[in-house]
Design goal:
The structure is a homodimer. Chain A folds into three domains: 74 residues, Arc Repressor Mutant, subunit A; 125 residues, Nucleotidyltransferase, domain 5 (2-Layer Sandwich), CATH 3.30.420.40; 163 residues, ATPase, nucleotide binding domain (Nucleotidyltransferase, domain 5, 2-Layer Sandwich), CATH 3.30.420. Helix content of chain A is 39%, strand content 21%. Chain A contains 14 helices and 15 strands. A five-stranded mixed sheet of chain A has the order 5-4-3-6-10, sandwiched between helices. The longest helix of chain A is centred in the last third of the chain and has 25 residues. The radius of gyration of chain A is 22 Å and the shape is globular. Chain A starts with 8 loop residues before the first helix and ends with a helix. The first copy, chain A, binds a DNA duplex through helix 1, helix 2, helix 3 and helix 4. Chains A, B: This is ROK family protein. Chains A, B: Pfam families: ROK (PF00480). Chains A, B: Belongs to the ROK (NagC/XylR) family. Chains A, B: InterPro entries: ATPase_NBD, ROK, WH-like_DNA-bd_sf, WH_DNA-bd_sf.
Chain lengths: 389, 389
DNA sequence: CGGATTATGCTCGTTCCACGAGGATAATCG
DNA sequence: CGATTATCCTCGTGGAACGAGCATAATCCG
């Protein structure tokens, strides 16, 4: 189970090109000189590699040279106009989005819509994907779906926001190209760790609150998402009241302590139909209503406690937050901090992992989904498949 | 934060050799033909690579060809008699062990002893390490320490079994070679995942009970051990009674529910001085004493609950157990299973990650410590440093 | 405005690693 | 003892990157 290393000449063949391509994807608008400096390539190698990549229709360099500094200007490495694309499908609890994304993250086309929450939405989404494949043909290399629910393989085993259970997303898969499915919070965390608030940190713990808590641990840019992609379902750890039943089938889930359901309980209200909106309302009301303020503080404290527990166990460099977690932290910073510190092991309290709000905001899930798809394409095998065709 | 790829010719230079060397380390007694088959090398490349490795005094092939099958016999890839060594220092709650280990895991020398639990033991251990360095000189490439306590960098911030707090192991570090420090449970888990019960599984969750609970998540053979090496301290997640104070400074830690302290509480006994031995006694008594049986069942159930919670969040392929956890599972399998299943999300219950006892047993921590040290040596930089000298 | 400065890109000969075909070698099998 | 099987070595080939030297394209500054 050691990591497979490049060892055959065939695998080595594209190592340099792969490194440049990955760099170009991770740093849009980087110049060729930036890449060769970052990767330690000689200028001769850079020339050879970029010309190979251009010939393979992977990158273009036609962008106007960004001028302004001294010295000879360097054209930016951009996606090739006939280069590979990925299709990203985002299914949140109230709407959907389908986009075609090129190397570097540029969005070529995008459609959005709303849905009722029924799994029937998968069929029309499959239509959109098929339309993109018809339009772009072989340029479309992968479909990456991003769902607000628990994922196992390409199946959504549970989505509390939409009431889904065991919904397969296989219908989204066009012939001949891979389908990847991920949880929205996990994908947002991946993007946040690579390109957002966690950029530069080796070990990033990301947490989102929408309906329940989700997140992901990202180590060296790789998401720790488990055997089936369900890694990061931190909301179903029993940090809460053991007497409460969770829709997931377990008890005492953290999920139930931090979202709209928790705040409704604190306010002696019935369980809200849409916990996401209800939570937003309570947070908004907290400015003037002490009861709401207390409910928000309770949720923030529970969030902080769980964060501390996870920090004890996973030892991140930094914790990033998105979704309602940012609002909880902004509205009740004291309660969050208090919960966080008391849950930390004593030795950690002198220098706890800093807690940072998302910088990508609502773009996180889509960016992460596109990145995971390109992770598959930007490999020996993926490049091989592209150039062979 | 993308993984750094080999891109320069200098990095590529040793890729094939590195792959063979890693294979030889991971599979002691493998033949050259095995390695070239597993790595997809041509026989010509294998010849070239092995001769380079022999010239660099990294591997020998002088072992008698293992004969018995048809065809020309193939000599096994063994450690070179003047090859690199690592020094492993194991500090458990009652004894210590210092060993020199060669590539492939062979033990060259080993000394053991007992200690009183005082941090003063570090000084004599440093003496043992220095003696090994004097004896082996440049062959000694790294020191890897394995401690029954919470680790941060090269410091033991807390060791409940020995009463340590903020003990630096830097004195163990000889000049010029790296010192690595890890938690015993985490290192045992690494070994178990690569060479033991978890071999062949991509995502392995390992858990140990000694005093408290420790463990590690291992993904693709890499331990997820966080920013400072404290990743895997699962025992300090609040799965337990929130009213109980843990010596770590937090409350409700899982630690307190599964070990000798928990069983003593269940039996209305005072907190034991040596929870490890006390736990063993209770488990032994469970054969005849119903009270002890109930106490064991309680601990096993708490262990199972935490396992389920971690399986929800981390999504392993398999869960491996060592230390007292194996005894708990053997003595009260029903309680463990019950706790495990009820803590799992419903959708997981049809096919929960299998729970397997350790196959390496007490060798786990040392094997893991040696492996982490060789992980550092079996890299471009490590090989470079070796051949330059 | 035009040379100096700075930075980048291209050319070309060299090096290193692995490939792959073909023949040599060393065991077991019948 | 020959046939079979499996492994190992030799040698010519090719790909990828290096690095020195030169060409190119902007800004800076007198």
């Amino acid at each position: 189970m050691q990591p497979t290393t490049a060892h055959s000449a065939r695998a080595l063949r594209s190592q340099g090109a792969l490194a440049v391509l990955r760099y170009a994807h991770a740093h849009p608008s980087a110049t060729r000189a930036d890449a060769s400096r970052a990767l330690g390539l000689s200028s001769g190698s850079a020339t050879e590699i970029t010309s190979r990549l251009k010939a393979a229709r992977l990158i273009g360099e036609d962008a106007p040279a960004r001028t302004g500094g001294r010295g000879r200007p360097s054209p930016a490495l951009t996606a090739h106009p006939e280069g590979p694309l990925v299709c990203v499908v985002d299914i949140s609890h109230e709407g959907w989005r389908v986009a075609a994304i090129e190397l570097g993250g540029g969005v070529l086309t995008e459609s959005t819509g709303r849905h009722t929450g029924s799994p029937d939405v998968v069929a029309p989404l499959a239509g959109h994907v098929a339309a993109l494949q018809a339009r772009y043909g072989r340029r479309l290399r992968a479909v990456s779906a991003c769902v607000a629910g628990t994922v196992s393989g390409t199946e959504v085993v549970q989505a509390s926001g939409m009431g889904w259970r065991d919904v397969s997303l296989e219908p989204l898969k066009p012939d001949g190209i891979p389908l990847l499915v991920g949880n929205d919070a996990s994908l947002a965390g991946l993007a946040e760790a690579r390109r957002g608030a966690g950029a530069g940190s080796r070990v990033v713990l990301h947490l989102t609150v929408e309906v329940g808590v989700g997140g992901i641990l990202v180590v060296d840019g790789r998401p720790v998402n488990g055997a089936t992609g369900a890694g990061g379902e931190f909301g179903h750890m029993p940090f809460g009241d053991p007497a409460l039943d969770c829709p997931c089938g377990a008890r005492g889930c953290w999920d139930l302590e931090v979202d709209g359901r928790a705040m409704a309980r604190a306010l002696h209200r019935p369980p809200p139909r849409d916990p996401r909106t209800a939570a937003g309302d309570v947070i908004a009301a907290a400015a003037s209503d002490p009861g709401a303020r207390a409910a928000v503080a309770g949720a923030a404290r529970a969030l902080g406690r769980g964060m501390g527990a996870l920090a004890n166990a996973l030892d991140p460099d930094v914790v990033t937050l998105s979704g309602l977690a940012v609002d909880l932290a902004a509205t009740a910073p004291g309660a969050l901090e208090d919960g966080y510190r008391t849950a930390l092991m004593r030795y950690r309290r002198a220098a706890p992992p800093p807690v940072l709000p998302s910088t990508l905001g609502p773009h996180g899930p889509l960016t992460g989904a596109a990145d995971t798809a390109f992770d598959v394409l930007l490999t020996d095998e993926g490049l091989d498949a592209w150039t062979r065709g």
